[in-house]
Amino acid sequence: MSPCDLDLILKDVSLKKDENLLRGIEGSEDAAVYRLTDELAIVQTVDFFTPIVNDSYLFGQIAAANSLSDIYAMGADPLTAMNLVMFNPEIGLDVLQEIIRGGRDKVEEAGAVIVGGHTVEDKEPKFGLSVTGTVHPDRFISNSNAKVGDKLVLTKPIGMGILATALKGELVEEEDIMEAINSIRTLNRDASLAMREVGVNSCTDVTGFGLLGHLMEMLLGSGVSAVVWADAVPKFERAFEFAEMGLVPAGACSNRKYVGDRVQFSSKVNEIVQDILFDPQTSGGLLISVSAECCDDLIKELEKRDVPTRAVIGEIVEKEPGKIEVI
Ligand code: CO
Ligand code: CO
Q1: How far is the CA of 49 from the centre of ligand 2 (A)?
Q2: Which of 61, 237, 265, 297 has the greatest number of C-beta atoms within 10 Å?
């Protein structure tokens, strides 16, 4: 079972209602929004995972960028963060120090502050952060408000899960996939600021459920359907060669099951491309649903803020909610 499958089990446990809880677990949202006053809500999220690269400092940066991402996906600003550390002291405390340093540098780049943390001993190291942000209670961007006619914009390439599998299998060196590593350690802040500037309908970040899994959640929550243009989806170049070698993480398979027959592929979308579309991402980009009229403005705003990837990958259509047609 992937951690994401386990996340779903949380939904089976009934939780107390609270009128100030504006977004909770029910909408497959990765961050919760809780209203404090009419002008202020806090946004809370947590994420951590095992190293996906060998360089400890880079891993710290990636884990922190990933943990901050759910705050940015909601159009909120990160404020404070706490380290979550599981570590095996036999590995050497200098390694842990590098991980924490990488995390700190990302949090500081985000303009937030680390206020504490907790460490437990564990055979396999894990690192991440619990992040608290703020947003106006009327102005957060949910993952369930996509509208028919919207365009879908993606702000980072996909295929990192496949590259991480190749890295683990020692079929590729870190320096050969730096383009991808630099992408996933980049904050989604600038993409978030761009979408707030323009005004968009819906947003989610692309992580464990892969592009199609997260898109499906957005569509189900919004009661709409989508067409995705497979060729328009940005993909890390080397993901193809490793996917062809069968280096596809188990999570891609569970994501395929999760989406099930809601997705339909046209005959020109081959298995390799399908695997990449289901590939679980770490610290992936924002998937934004923006009205057709505002789409050009969003692309311009992303360009202005030097967000290197700003691809229009599909559109929202009126069909059975949750359906995805990949052509
Ligand atoms: Co999660
Ligand atoms: Co998320």
Answers
A1: 14
A2: 61
Quote the ligand 2 centre to 276 CA distance (angstroms).
18
CB 224 within 8 A of CB 30: no
- The rounded Å distance from CA 183 to ligand 2 centre is 16
Contact 312, 220 (CB under 8 A): no
The answer to whether the CB of 199 falls within 8 A of the CB of 320 is no
Q: How far apart are CA 253 and CA 1, in angstroms?
A: 11
- Centre of ligand 2 from the C-alpha of residue 184, in Å: 14
Domain with 312 in it: what CATH number? 3.90.650.10
Q: Which amino acid is at 73?
A: A
AA letter at 247: L
- For residue range 145-195, list pLDDT tens digits in order: 999 999 999 999 999 999 999 999 999 999 999 999 999 999 999 999 999
Alpha carbon of 156 to ligand 2 centroid (Å):
14
Distance CA 124, CA 1 (A): 17
pTM confidence score: 0.96
The ligand that comes nearest to the alpha carbon of residue 68 is: 2
Number of the ligand closest to the Cα of 6:
1
Same-domain status, 158 and 119: no
- A 10 A CB-CB count for 144 gives 21
142/32 Cα distance (integer angstroms): 10
Domain count, the chain: 2
